[in-house]
Please model this.
Amino acid sequence: MLNQQQYVILSLELHLFFGRIMKEHSLFLEAGFTPANANFSKVADQFKTQFETVLYNAVVLGNGIISPNVVSSGELVTEYTLGTEQKTQNFTGIVINQDITRMEADLFGMEDPQITSEMVQQVRQLNAQTMPLLDGLIEFKTRVLNDVLACNMFTVNYPLLIDHILREANMYKSQLAALENGESPDTNVKETELFWDQIMMEHALFIRGLLDPTEGDLINTSNDFAMEYATLLEQARAATDSSIEQITGDTLEETLKYHDFKEAGASGIAECKIRSIILPLLGDHVLREANHFIRILKQFS
Model:
């Protein structure tokens, strides 16, 4: 069972990472709808705003409370986040609260913070408010995916991407539920690696498909990463408790290389040096997810 300090820290770290991911998913959905589905765009925008509130509350509560390791991991914000938000807002006309990003850039962590009973109550309230919001977003993503697969809707987002962001929302929900049950998320090495290996593989597939056809070298590199993670997925599926450690080491090594590729991509897209139909914020988004996976893999190693 988690003690109160662990409950508060892990809850806030979860919201700081996944709250931002969810608000960006909502933005990517909103940007992908056509005028025929303007009502869906409005709903997506509402979810974006609601998850900005979750994120803002987590930033306010988490300053000086979360671990320095998470602050320095690059999973909450990177040097590209603010600039890619500004560019994405300019391109899409979708308003992004960039003050939250500025606040997050100033976050600091502490190794052994003092947790008050008032803070425990505030975190319980934040968790309780987030759960129905997540349920709503999961239902919305499911409806969009079903409409796309039934040819009732066109969106510029791949069906696999919609399925991908639906699985991430379900992961957020399951980890939040674990915390409310007094359990620590990300403790099962095999399940965690299977989940994030698939996410990383799909990122490579999306990047490959969203690059301009003239970007041959980058397309080939993306394809290579997709195949590498497909192999790691198969190895993780076949692994036993005793053999997973070796695969964790290989996965960490691969993900560190992938981080470098994604960072170059985030920078290149932001500076208009790479031809693609990738929103600048999406380049930063997938980089942060790689950074999150790297931190988890280092904990396992």
Remarks:
- The mean pLDDT is 97.
- The first helix runs from residue 4 to 32.
- The chain has eleven helices and no strands.
- The radius of gyration is 19 Å.
